Structure formats: C-alpha cells, structure tokens
Amino acid sequence: MTAQAVQTDEHAVVIGLEVHVQLETATKIFCGCSTAADDDEEPNSRTCPVCLGLPGALPVLNEGAVEAAVKIGKALSADIPERTTFHRKNYYYPDLPKNFQLTQYDAPICQEGELEISVEGDRREIGITRAHLEEDPGSLQHKGGSIDTAEATLINYNRAGTPLVEIVTEPDFRSPAETRAFLAKLEEVLEYLGVFDATRDGSLRVDANISLVDADEVDEEGAIDDSVLEDANRTEVKNISSHKAAEKALAYEVSRQKNAVKRGRALKTETRHWDESRGITVSMRSKESEADYRYFREADLPPLEVADWKDKIDIPELPDARRERFVADYGLDSEAASKLTSTKEVADFFEAVAEQFDPNVAATWVADNLLGELNYRDMLITDIEGRLDEFSRLIELVENDELTVKNAEEVVLRSMLDDGDDPETIIDREGLGKADDDAIADFVVEAIDENPDAVDDYHSGEDGALNFLVGQVMQKSGGSADPGSVNQLLREELDA
Amino acid sequence: MSDSPVDADEVQHVADLARVDLDDADADEFAAQFADILDYFAALDEVPEVDSDPELVNVMRADEVEEGLSQDEALQNAPETEDGFFKGPSVS
C-alpha cells in the first residue's frame, strides 16, 4: 500500500495545509524591534513606528529572515526563483495597525518543494506548493467575554512584525494521521535548520483545507484529478496550534462532514474555527474572498534576487540523513538512531559522547539513561547545555569500575539533574565510591560471623541463604560493592 | 452614471470591507467622485516616456536589534488605552 486513501463508506478524505512558522531571528522582519518575548513582558513594549504602522515609517527587510527562508527552501528541495516580490494584503482588522499585511503573493521565495514522511511504515511524499515570507499580526484580547460577546478589544503589538514563513502544501494528505506525521517532521527539520523554536508558544500555527471526494476518484497511487478537487466543497479549519491538535481537529472535521453527507445535507464551502477547549469546529462568519484583499505590490520593498543564496548558504545534515549515518557509522539499531536524532542538540550531544567511548556505550547512556531521566523531569537536552564534560566523567567512572552502574544511573545521574551538582560532589556526599577489595573482604567475614543461622542454612542447601548474605554485605558497603563479586567472595569463604 | 467605471454597489462593498458605514446618498456621491478621480489619472497617458532610474534590488538590513519606542511613547497617540494595551471596540 502506498498512498491509499482512508476509505470509509464511499468517501475519501483530501487535506491540504497552510503552516505558519515563526522564524527565530533576533529582530522583526521589517524593523529592528526584538523578537525575544519574555513571559511577563509588558504589552506594547517592543514596538517602533514601523511595526505600529505610523505615518511615514518605512519597512526594511531583515536579511536574517531571508536567509532562514532560503534554508527552509533548500531543506524542502524547493526552487528559489530568480526574483521574488512583496505585496500588501489589505484587510481591516486591528491585529494589523496598517490595515494591510506585508506578505508575498505571486512571486514567493520558495516554490515547488517536497517533504517525505513516514506513516505506519509507509513512505509518502508531500508536495510543497510554495513557502513565502510575511509579517505576524499583533495579538488581541477580547475583554469581558468571548470573541462574540466582548465589550472591548485590547491590542498588543509586540508580536506584530515577527517574521513568518507560510508553507503551503499540495492537497496530498489522505488522513488526519498523515498531517500529524508531516507537521512533526516539518518541526524536526526546522529545528535542525536552527530557524525555529518549537517550545515558543504559538510558534507553529496551522490552517487546513479539507474536503470529501468519491472514493472512486482516487487512483491506486492516491492521486486525484484536479477537476474533482476543484468541484469538491472545501472547509478551511483555522486556529490549529500544534501537530497533535491538527490530527484531532481534522479527525473531528472528517466525521462531521461524513455525518452531514450521511444525513443527506450538502457540504458548503466555509471557514471553521477549531475550538481546542471544546474539541469541535464551529462555523465562522464568511470571510473575504481573495479579490477583497486587493493585493498589490509593496512599493516600499524592492524585489529580492537571492536565487544564488541557495548555493552560498549551507544547511546542516537533516534528520533522515543523520539517522541513516548513525546506523551505518556507529552500528546503532534504527530505534536508537531515531531517538538520538530526535533533535539536533541530542544528536550533537551523542556524537560528542561517542567520540570518547564505544558508540554502543554512548548510545545506551544518552538514549536510554539520559533521555529517559530528562523526559521524566520534563527537561530538554538544552537544559544541560555545557555539562557534556560532567556526563562524560560519569560514564568514565563506570567504565573504570570506580562506580557501579546502578549507583551511576539511580543516584548520581538523577542528582546531577535534580540538584545540578557534578558527579564527584555527589559521589563524595553519598559515599558511593566503589569499596576497595579489602573492605569488602572484611564485610564478608563480618556478615558470616553475625549470621550463623544463615550460614547453617547455606550449608544445608537452602537457596535463599546466600542471597540474604549478599544483601547483608551490600548493606554494609552502602551499595558500593559489586553484587557479583560479593557473591563469589561469600562462596569462597563459606566453602573454604 | 451607468457608464461610470465605479458604481454605487462597488463603493458600498469597499466601504464594508473597511468597516465604514455609508448610506445610499453617500455611496452615489463617492461613485461620481471616483469616476472624476480616475479621469484625472488619464492625464498620465499624455506624459512622454522618460528614462527611469535603475530599479533597486536586495535592500536589506542586518538582523540586529535597534531601540524602539517605550510603552508610553507607543501609546501616546491612542484615543483609549488600558493597562498598557491599545483599547478599541469589540470585533468579531
């Protein structure tokens, strides 16, 4: 099966996405205002005449935003055309103080790309129609009620002018699950490129176009004739804010449309709003048609000719390629390779560790122990930035037999993350240094002297007795003895 | 009026898009004025062609933070504010 549609009853689902991605630049797209949003920042504290739309202010394009867009184009195997231009999209809404949004229209910076995804083992190629640069609007609060019942609107222009790339896909998705896989993959690629921060609130926002077509219209490759798509009534679902929400919103919308058809109701072309808290989509007042936006060229922004930047700007190795290299070069299994390439920072960290130790030892430590403990604490690899050396010393102590694996994993690593201490401090504090052989030999003799009943049981062949004595020695050593060698020493002593 | 390039319905539509409330008399009046304004532009057809300056391309700035306005400065022309926000009528 390659691209089989999800065919329930006699309908197939067709979905296309528009993904808005905030770029991680230092400044806004057309002015020098900072994009660094503090959680507790004051409203309207990062603005200037340009992003407030004051008369006479002139936009100047941020080179960093153009570079980021070119990187995205490269990663999506898209064309960067010889010449691209900016347009005004006119609409009257207070989130944009100029009454128009600066965007790109008929000459976007990226055209005709693709991104490969994998859904339940099937590989699917999703066509990218275009990706263009534009400015983010400001944010509105509807005071004293919901959007319908508010008495006033409070406006904050701190976000206004944050650079966005809008990525538009072909209608190539045949199920909500595919859109989720695509968005997760896209996020991963964008993070690798270093142009996007997934942890930032609202950094990825999605609108989805969804329609039902006759299942008979889908050919074996999953392709559908353009004329069929044009005739289908399409719903645009707005306000989706993550890849998980995309799958939920679209699954809801698919069943809503199927139920409507089942009851004999015609589907109409409309815009619907995803209400995350209620888990439903609701119809929005009909929006302006494309002609109503009265697009025209922005005379204050000269055209861009940056096709040659595609050769000049390097992008890092992307996740798929890196995963394959980890399997080939380090001999990792594909599950470990996937975990270790989940973000660029994790992959960099692993490779730094793998330089010093056997790759399999490094993989176990990073993929299983470290990522497991970080995940349990809701921490990210970036939270231990600069502590690579401490982590290496921890592994070295275990490799040199100076610390037991159990103590390293369960005490030292956890305390490193919880308390921020270095491994040596924790080992001293907890007295975890592996006990020397003489001390253990003394503990063995002590344990035998103190537990004559257990010794008798051992000699009469009772299985549990030896384990009990091992436990006693371990206790005396504060967990720092190696259970295997204690076992052996006890046997030698008892059988002597 | 029938041969006017802009009729009253079109004026009303554009006014709606800009959330401006026009009555029918206003719309008729503006339609006539738009027709006159468009006529004025016809004068440009009479202007002889001249050499234009070469077009600028790739005008960009480095991604470096510049100081902007304080909150007080940003809000000082606003007719209404609240807690540092611009305040306007409810919208949907």
UniProtKB/TrEMBL annotation, chain A:
Domain Asn/Gln amidotransferase intervals: 348-494
Known EC number: 6.3.5.-
Superkingdom as given in the UniProt entry: Archaea
GO MF annotations, alphabetized: asparaginyl-tRNA synthase (glutamine-hydrolyzing) activity; ATP binding; glutaminyl-tRNA synthase (glutamine-hydrolyzing) activity; transferase activity
Keywords per UniProt: ATP-binding, Ligase, Nucleotide-binding, Protein biosynthesis, Transferase
Function (record text): Allows the formation of correctly charged Asn-tRNA(Asn) or Gln-tRNA(Gln) through the transamidation of misacylated Asp-tRNA(Asn) or Glu-tRNA(Gln) in organisms which lack either or both of asparaginyl-tRNA or glutaminyl-tRNA synthetases. The reaction takes place in the presence of glutamine and ATP through an activated phospho-Asp-tRNA(Asn) or phospho-Glu-tRNA(Gln).
Assembly and oligomerization: Heterotrimer of A, B and C subunits.
Protein family membership: Belongs to the GatB/GatE family. GatB subfamily.
Protein's recorded name: Aspartyl/glutamyl-tRNA(Asn/Gln) amidotransferase subunit B
Species: Halonotius aquaticus
Lineage: Archaea, Methanobacteriati, Methanobacteriota, Stenosarchaea group, Halobacteria
Automatic annotation (TrEMBL), chain B:
Family: Belongs to the GatC family.
Organism lineage string: Archaea, Methanobacteriati, Methanobacteriota, Stenosarchaea group, Halobacteria
Region (Disordered): 67-92
Subunit structure: Heterotrimer of A, B and C subunits.
GO biological process: glutaminyl-tRNAGln biosynthesis via transamidation; regulation of translational fidelity; translation
Chemical reaction(s) catalysed: L-glutamyl-tRNA(Gln) + L-glutamine + ATP + H2O = L-glutaminyl-tRNA(Gln) + L-glutamate + ADP + phosphate + H(+); L-aspartyl-tRNA(Asn) + L-glutamine + ATP + H2O = L-asparaginyl-tRNA(Asn) + L-glutamate + ADP + phosphate + 2 H(+)
Keywords: ATP-binding, Ligase, Nucleotide-binding, Protein biosynthesis, Transferase
Superkingdom of this protein's organism: Archaea
Keyword Nucleotide-binding attached: yes
NADP keyword on record: no
The protein's Enzyme Commission number: 6.3.5.-
Protein name per Swiss-Prot or TrEMBL: Aspartyl/glutamyl-tRNA(Asn/Gln) amidotransferase subunit C
Pfam families, A to Z: GatC
Species this protein is from: Halonotius aquaticus
